[in-house]
Description:
Number of helices: 14
Number of domains: 2
Order of helices and strands: HEEEHEEHEHEHEHHHHHEHHEHEEEH
Radius of gyration: 23 Å
Helix content: 25-40%
Largest sheet: 7 strands, mixed
Strand content: 15-25%
Mean pLDDT: 84
Amino acid sequence: MKKGFIAKLFASVTALTCAFSIAACSKDEPTKNDNGTNGSQTEKTEYQMLGTVTHGNLYFLSKNSEEKFDTTASLQSLIGKKVGVVQLPNVPGLILKLILQKNNVPFKQIETADEAAEDKVNLLAISSDNAAATIVANAENYDCFVAADPLVTLKTNQNLFRSGSLQALYGENGYPQAVIVGKSAFLKQYPEWTNKFMEKLSGADEYLAETDAAAILAPYTAAYTADGRTGSWNAKNLNAASVANCNVKFEASATCKTAVTTIVTEMFEIQRQTAPTLTEAFFYLPPESGASVMSADMASFMIAPKTPEETIVYSPDGAPALILAELMAEGTLEDTAITCKIVSPDTIGTYVSYQGDQQYKNADFCILPVNMAAKLLGR
């Protein structure tokens, strides 16, 4: 063997080893601001969006079975009504406002029912914490509601009626509601495994349609880790109809990036805020099968493992968690141990970002509301 080749190989190995060392150090030590505290956004670890996992699960609930808000024309009948919106400041409220604005239906956000106007749709916030109990205890303060499944399925069993789909009112095939992001360093190191991971997500809708509810519920319950909270899914509301109403389906970034960019822009504009810039780099595009993005050199194949030993995926509780149903049940993919953690929607952003002096979470993969992903990880 010629000395030149050995020298070149040694140099390649050394460079790659240094790169791994730097990456390892970067993972453990979050970047500090000038004042020595952790920043509010991801500064050290970059993330990319693999795709959309849910396409809208928001519905109107009415007290009257004859009342319908299922066409754009019927939205005019909301004027003068008090609409309780679970998570009004977040995706549910933003989507409702977008639909009303696009159809020239005036609305206003009020704090109490006494502030209701007769010439506008009156939007009242309902906290996601104990939303079901709030709706029951204060039903007289509202004329109708907007909420997400599985809460909608639960309430339709308790004298309320599903009266319209926000997905249908938005148009086409709904809208990107939740997306999954992956750590860029992980995606680059394990491109072939990431392809397998995306393939598994792509089969989630078929798995959910064919699998018994009890088989889905058991691993979900085991993965739910929010202390002191009751998970959204239970034996009363997890069924074929409620799962179908959650619109769980993986759509890769390559095909959904235009829809994601559009909905993000609309959501921030309705709040009169400047939308984050989602560059091409934000959207993950898998390399061709067999290609190495770590290095074209032989040394990369000799050193870098093609399969991770383990990985952790975080999801907020609710509909988005269903995309992980098969992975939660199996616990492995291509000999990689997969731990799925279902956490409170209120804390999901902390798993990809710095939050003051809180622990740095550094998730490998994380499911986020689309507007949160853009805000935390966009530019």
